[in-house]
Amino acid sequence: MTSTTISVNGRTVTADVEPRLSLADFLREHEGLTGTHTACEHGVCGACTIMLDDRPARSCITLAVAAHGAEVRTVEGYDGDETMATIRESFKKAHAVQCGYCTPGMLATAYDIVTRLPDADRDRIRLELAGNLCRCTGYIGIVDAIEMTLAEIRGGS
Amino acid sequence: MSDRGVGASIARKEDDRFLMGTGEFTPDVQLPGMWHAAFNRAQIAHGRLVSVKAPSGAEGQVFTSADMADIKPIRSTASFPGFKGADFPVLARDKVRYAGEQVAIAVAPTRAEAEDIADSIEVEYEELPAVVDMNDGREPSAALVHDHWADNVCCETQFENGDLEPARAAAVHTIHRRFRMARQTPFPMEGRGTLAHYDSRLDELVVWMSHQLPHPMQRGIAHFLGLEINNVRVICPDVGGGFGLKTHLDGETMAVCWTSLKLGRPIKWIQDRLEHLTCDADCRNHQYTMTAYTDEIGKILGMEVECVVDAGAYSPWPWPIGVEAATGVGNLQGPYTVDALKGRSVTVCTNKPPSQPFRGVARPGACFTDELTMDAIARTVGREPWDVRLDNLVPPAAMPYDTVTRKHLDSGDYPEAFRRCVAAIDPESVRERQKTPEPDGRLIGVGFACFYEQTAYGTGPFGYSAWGIELVPGMEMATVKLTPDGGLWASVGIQCHGQGLETTLAQVAASELGIDPERIAIRHGDTATAYAGTGTYASRSIVVAGGAVAQGCRELKPRLARIGAHLLQCDEADVAVENAEVRGPGGSVTFDEIAEAFYHHPENLPDDTDRGGLTVATGYNDKVHGGVFGFGAHGAVVAVDPDTGQVEILDYAIVDDCGTRVNPLVVKGQVIGGYAQGIGNALYEESDYDENGQPLSVTLADYHVPAAPMVPDIKYDYMESPSPYTTMGIKGVGESGAIGPVGAIGNAVNDALKGLGVEIAETPITPRRVFDAIERGRAR
Predict the structure, then answer these.
(1) What confidence tens digit (pLDDT) does each residue in B440-463 have?
(2) How far does the CA of residue B306 sit from the closest CA of chain A (Å)?
(3) Cβ A100–B708 below 8 Å, yes or no?
């Protein structure tokens, strides 16, 4: 067991964990944050994407002990965040959710696109989404939702 | 209220919990004292089990088929000619028949520990030659997948309708082709998973499953474990996609249930992606040999076809071997007026995972076959494929139309859908473009596909009931009740895993009663809340559960009218029930007030209040039993790189018609989602095997699921031809989008290659296959 201290959604958590424990399993099993989903568990599909020090990361191939000292933000950690509220509203309007399993990871990547690439066009949005698989929507609704969010942010500022 | 009822593009009620990360999927369910399960799986495709030895220290934590002698093996039934049944053991018994077959279950307090134990189980095999290819499996020299069978052919069907002899005699052209569709996995984002727990208070085995069919699973688990239905409850909570994968009773679930009862503690098994890509490589994998007879201008006079299906090692329950083949042959004429068809199907057992339906079932294969044949006909007769299609499509004046395969096409203008698709693609402009070589050297092609989608079929004289299978859908039930505060609660036996049915069924009820969808709760996926149902598959749920919910609302109305009229002190004949109130000549009472009287102030009720109260349990039964038919047309323009074989989709158009659209946003979402899976089918996804039956596509580096850049925007258009047979004219739409892409993209690629005189006839159309075809063309 190794002691690790991680800031999870602004709350400092210290735990003794197996060195092999993934950050995804840590969040789900130890912290009860089941909004982070695992789907491929080998770092390809993006369902488990969370924010690690404000950058999207795969929590299934990040070890919990490697996140020692880091700030982790999961889908449960956006209370009061206006950007995420806009993204979520756009996802509803654009029918960017079907089964909902990839959604938390999609939201993390969408948040990254919206905050980092305010001028992204549809091609760029698609490229940025390439690391997040969705089997239900065919992505078009998701691209629409991110485009809609960017337009709304541009219009509002 | 109609602005939020049927026809309204309202946002989905279920979205909020998914967007907040508060949905509850099977892996999210935690129970006190719960242990985790992992499976030791066969490392070879075919062999005798010599010994299975648990590691020391894991006593009481490893179980094999020898321990589970009291479980009945899973066995499916069918009345297909020559159907051979074979036990599908919960854990391998005597032999393993595909790489990845579960051999032993290991349980431990954590998943990691369970996996450690499963990996340390020592299994000794005596390896046997593997049957890898379905054609090889038909050879007399092939090894036997099931030792007690005389050969590996497990089912053969024949179909003949119309007289083929005159067609043959009159034919000016005979077009002969062989098509193949690779094996795939359905790949829902959430894999399979089961959590079983014995509730001693209720004397009930409670099984959480990531599944599409709660009631059939309750029946199957009870039957094969030897329990009463009363002692099994199945809950399918939020389910991260299904696509047909989650419609059978898997051995893992049975082993988890047994182990949970044995140890008296909750046991959870969550499939990982390696297991999914290995054990659920279970769909498509057909071969069609087509001979089409046509006249001078390409009008099809008759078809002759043989369909070979690679069934894998076992016949799953409740969908047996043979359904794929029957569906493939049974739709081969597509949406065309073919008068004579002779079909034969052969289903062959191989050492691969048992084959299962996947979105579209065999219809993508049938579409690939009839649509590529159609373009081959057009090239043969020297006409444009869109002209030849228009000469063959079922005309609207012929509706309803009975196809040569006895599908009763209920409504719609098929040629108009196709004309709209052609207009959106503008193939003449592609012909212009093709006259000049592309600056980058790529070859441009245009292709189309027309199809129908048989949705919501029931007892069907040429389908489920004729096949003699365990699960014949027909009556679909709903319980509908007005709640004490005037809202509506409805429970249904279907399961929603992305289709938006919590919203669309509420919209159906909203249209009937005028209650806002926000005040309507739809409960599904739980055998304890819905008293009957067969689940969600075959594009049926909005038709059948929608019909049942609507029927429930309609049966509630006279009960509401009687109470409302009494409260209004007027005659029952003078009231109308709408907009969530009962309106009489002098005023109205709201449903809230009626509910208040019924539940809390019965002193205000009329003496003749319906004894059924404000709860109705009722059902929907088809007016026709062979389903209702959505239809559509897809068109694609592609660029093929002759140096790499890479195919890029430059333009794509879809025109779709699913009758009355309950929620246009959801309908479009279903069509686009199917389109993306169709792109995977057409260009990327293949579960490949080596000559020993070892799976080669076991990570997402080998198995290519379309990502966002691989799924371009589309031109989307719709038509609405209500079904004359269903409630509100609704048809299903769940599989439609997945049927057309293989045909449209395949034809576009072949159009690009036509100057080389070669054709692609196998999916996925990978760079290797395209490059090989180009090389063949250049060598000519």
Answers:
(1) 999 999 999 999 999 998 877 667
(2) 32
(3) no
Phi and psi of B582, rounded to 5°?
A: -110, 120
Residue burial B197-225, b: 16+ Cβ < 10 Å; e: rest: bbeeeeebbbbbbbbbbbbbbbbbbbbbb
CB pair distance less than 8 Å for A98 and B241: yes
What angle is formed at CA B572 by the lines to CA B566 and CA B577, rounded to 5 degrees? 95
Structural domains of chain B ordered from first start: 2-21+475-620 (3.30.365.10), 31-128+187-279 (3.90.1170.50), 283-460+624-779 (3.30.365.10)
Q: What is the pLDDT of residues A114-139, one digit of tens each?
A: 999 999 999 999 999 999 999 999 99
Assigned CATH for A82-156:
1.10.150.120
Write out pLDDT tens, residues B564-619.
Answer: 999 999 999 999 999 999 999 999 999 999 999 999 999 999 999 999 999 999 99
CA distance B243 to B289: 27
Check: CB of residue B636 under 8 Å from CB of residue B748: yes
* Predicted complex ipTM exceeds 0.85: yes
Tell me whether B701 touches chain A (CB under 8 Å): yes
For B172, the token pair is 């000016």
CA-based nearest distance A26→chain B, Å? 12
Q: Enumerate residues 232 to 251 of chain B having a beta carbon within 8 A of any beta carbon in chain A.
A: 238-241, 243
Q: Which residues of B touch A135 (CB under 8 A)?
A: 187-189, 241, 243, 673, 676-677, 705
Homologous superfamily of the A2-77 domain (CATH): Beta-grasp domain (3.10.20.30)
CA dihedral B734, B739, B745, B751 (to 10 degrees): -150
Q: Using CA coordinates, name the residue in chain B closest to A27.
A: B28
* A33, A98, A130 member nearest B498 (Cβ): A98
Indicate the SS3 state at residue A16. Answer: strand
User: pLDDT at position B465, please?
Assistant: 82
In whole angstroms, give the CA distance from residue B434 to residue B437.
7
- If we measure between CA atoms, which residue out of B4, B6, B3, B2 comes closest to residue B543? B6
Burial class (CB in 10 A: 0-12, 13-18, 19+), B20: middle
With a CB-CB cutoff of 8 Å, which residues 169-208 of chain B face chain A? Answer: 187-191
Which A residues, 52 through 71, put their C-beta within 8 Å of a C-beta on chain B?
none
N- to C-terminal Cα separation, chain B: 67
Task: Indicate the pLDDT class of residue B132, thresholds 50, 70 and 90.
Answer: very high
Three-state helix/strand/coil letters over B765-778: CCHHHHHHHHHHHH
For residue B43 the two structure tokens come to 């490392």
Sorted by where each begins, the domain ranges of chain A are 2-77, 82-156
DSSP code string of A76-123: GG-TT-HHHHHHHHHHHHTT--SS-SSHHHHHHHHHHHHHH-TT--HH
Q: Give the whole-angstrom CA distance, residue B12 versus residue B503.
A: 5
CB distance B209 to B194 below 8 Å: yes
| Range 79-138 of A in CB contact (< 8 A) with B | 88, 91-93, 95, 97-104, 107, 122-123, 125-127, 129-138
State whether residue B525 sits within 8 Å of chain A by CB.
Answer: no
Q: Which of A33, A93, A140 sits opposite B713 (nearest CB)?
A: A140
A131 to B668: CB separation less than 8 angstroms, yes or no? no
* Contact assignment for B677 to A34 by CB distance below 8 Å: no
pTM: predicted TM-score of the whole model, two decimal places? 0.97
Instruction: Verify whether the Cβ–Cβ distance A40 to B15 is below 8 Å.
Output: no
Interchain contact A18–B (C-beta under 8 A)? yes
Pairs across A and B, CB distance < 8 A: 170
Q: What percent of chain B has pLDDT over 90?
A: 92
Q: Are B536 and B530 in contact (CB under 8 A)?
A: no
CB contact under 8 A, B709 and A34: no
